[in-house]
């Protein structure tokens, strides 16, 4: 009988040749993948030759990191902390920038798997079924950072509770007419949970926000949206924004229309970017611990790679930074 090649084994097992190579070199594979390959190997009594053993090393010591963009405060700082933690563990970082393109992120997941990286850290802006299906289809461990995965290892920010606490602070400062600016709910963390936390908290006080504005992450778009809706905005005393970046654009537009943040109007947000404390009226905002998130993500991924026990989900804490951008109406008569 003709001796099988690795290519033929891969085809019969329904996997890639790299996966077969990892199998023979004792690499980390899913249980069902190992069983598929073993079934073919046992059936044909296959013994790997010297060439097969000489294929790519079991451990590449490379972790692929897929980011939505490189220019945002959150992405760039998270990436810095991830790289620091990987280097401490003798791993190198291979960065893929998806530029907010979901299809590109999915393509990069598959591409990194083919490149035989030891693991993948994914910072998705959305979390559709396509992500879950793609992650399930590869034999490389994946950990999500910043989004909720149904069956995937993930490190998540406590967006709902953070939004609740921020809204409670705004309410405690005497505000009852509160507008909200967010992003699309396909972004589960920023678009859905932050908005939900704000709205549920308002409902607890028998309040609602009739003025909800949805845009994307660009400050130019928040600037334009406020300009277009300034008459509706004037009917409120505070605007809560889903990110500091949205708040920056909003503040510029508000002040051009005579609404002075920290004096006769209030703004609050999420992110605590480096420049938020340096504004004319420093921004009241939620600070998420990016450093802790990065460390937990790397630790979780390395445990999965080593097949050690680890939690499926970790929730990262936050801190409410109260500053001058939210006026205390309890001690202020608004003109």
From TrEMBL:
Pfam families per UniProt: LacI, Peripla_BP_3
Source species of the chain: Gemella sanguinis
Signal peptide: none
All copies of domain HTH cro/C1-type, residue ranges: 2-51
InterPro entries according to UniProt: Cro/C1-type_HTH, HTH_LacI, LacI/GalR-like_sensor, Lambda_DNA-bd_dom_sf, Peripla_BP_I
One MF annotation (Gene Ontology) recorded for this entry: DNA binding
Transcription regulation recorded as keyword: yes
Name used for this protein in its record: LacI family DNA-binding transcriptional regulator
Keywords assigned: DNA-binding, Transcription, Transcription regulation
Residue ranges occupied by any HTH lacI-type domain in the UniProt entry: 4-57
Superkingdom of this protein's organism: Bacteria
